[in-house]
Amino acid sequence: MPRSLEIQTDSFPIAGTFTISRGTKTSAEVIVCAVGEHGFSGRGECVPYRRYGETMESVGAQIEASRPLIEAGLSRADLQHAMPPGAARNAVDCALWDLEAKQTGTSVAAMLGLAAPHSLTTAFTISLGEPEVMAEHARANAARALLKVKVGTGDDESRIRAVRAAAPDAAIILDANEGWPEDRLAHHLRIAAECGVALVEQPLPAGRDELLADIDRPILVCADESVHHTGDLASLRDRYDAINIKLDKTGGLTEALAMKREAERLDFRIMLGCMVGTSLAMAPAVLLAQDVAFVDLDGPLLLARDREPGLRYAGSLVFPPESALWG
Predict the structure, then answer these.
(1) Would you call 207 helix, strand, or coil by DSSP?
(2) Is 102 a catalytic residue?
(3) H/E run at residue 12
């Protein structure tokens, strides 16, 4: 019996709004692939991202175009050449991992050599807004161990200081989403260092980040939009101290594993990040994130509702997936 492929679109409302330097969204639009074979089915979720030229329609069409190969038994290794990095390949790749786990009775954690995957401290995101609003949100979440604070304007000093005052004990990541003007970069990095920020993510636009090689970086600076797959890493060594691996960028867990190994070889710190999606999208990343420096897998916490069953979150922790969800 040949494999089957099902493609489903879902929309999950966000609790309130989610705002970054590029705009605001009120729902998470996701695509789920289900690959079936011999009575077993594996699932993978992706989040198309317009910043990278993706739409729900284009990603769905990309998966559909690969249907003959997938249904003919395409392997994960061959998938890396059959589809480019991005959301579409991520959904298929993660579905194939899940399918193999279900067929063999061996968890993905065991396939990865993780005898006992453990809970992780994950960041919780504070959306971009006026300083007093961000401070209020930070204060409500001040007991969390790690906050990821969206910034990305020409005047973020007041936001940084307000959030730090509201959450004095939390570790803080700033994510500018390419939004800091070049002439404010040094100033904002200095303020971030003064406020004890642990990491600044993607301060300058991708492709215009060469300035980072020529200035003093008083704190760790992490690439996100500037890094997508393993081939990007070597050119970033003089610009960034850390990289953000997201499965929707790499095109799945298979490439993300290779990227992680190469990033470690090149002495990058690693963040495991996510788009705003459900627990199904986070589950593979939780396993990949077992030994990284920073974990940002709070997508389901930003939603008004998650999938059932979903990942378990408690306080600042996210726990490994149960097989009923994925893997």
Answers:
(1) coil
(2) no
(3) strand 4-20
| Mean per-residue pLDDT, 159-167 | 98
pLDDT tens digits for 126-152? 999 999 999 999 999 999 999 999 999
- Among 25, 102, 148, 246, which one carries the catalytic annotation? 246
Catalytic residue among 102, 148, 150, 249: 150
Per-residue pLDDT tens over the stretch 232-275: 999 999 999 999 999 999 999 999 999 999 999 999 999 999 99
What sign does the dihedral 100-29-227-188 (CA atoms) show?
Answer: negative
For the domain made up of 120-318, the CATH class stated in words is alpha beta
Token pair recorded at residue 253: 């867990």
State the fold for domain 4-106.
Enolase-like; domain 1 (3.30.390)
**Torsion sign (Cα): 160, 162, 165, 168:** negative
- At 90, is the secondary structure helix, strand, or coil? helix
Whole-angstrom CA distances from 213 to 85, 141, 217, 237 are 27, 35, 9, 9
The domain locations on the chain are 4-106, 120-318
Burial class (CB in 10 A: 0-12, 13-18, 19+), 325: buried
Residue 170: count other Cβ atoms within 10 Å of its Cβ: 22
| Strands lying side by side in the sheet with 317-318 | 120-121, 317-318, 313-314
> Is residue 260 flagged as an active site residue?
no
pLDDT score at 23: 84
Ligand-binding site membership of 216 (annotated) = no
224 annotated to a ligand binding site? yes
Beta strands in 108-264 (DSSP E): 120-121, 124-126, 146-150, 171-175, 199-201, 220-223, 242-245
Asked if residue 175 belongs to a known ligand binding site, the reply is yes
Tens digit of each residue's pLDDT (9 = 90 or more) over 40-63: 999 999 999 999 999 999 999 999
